[in-house]
Amino acid sequence: MEAKNWVSPLALALLVGCGGGEISLGISGGSDRFVPTFLSWTGNSSGDQVVDVNNDAFAFYSDSGCLHNFRTGRENPDFCLSSRQGNVRYGRLSMRVVNALSTAGTCITVLVEESTANFVDIELDALGREVVFVTAARPGFCA
Question: Less CB within 10 Å around the terminal CB: N or C of the chain?
Answer without folding.
Answer: N
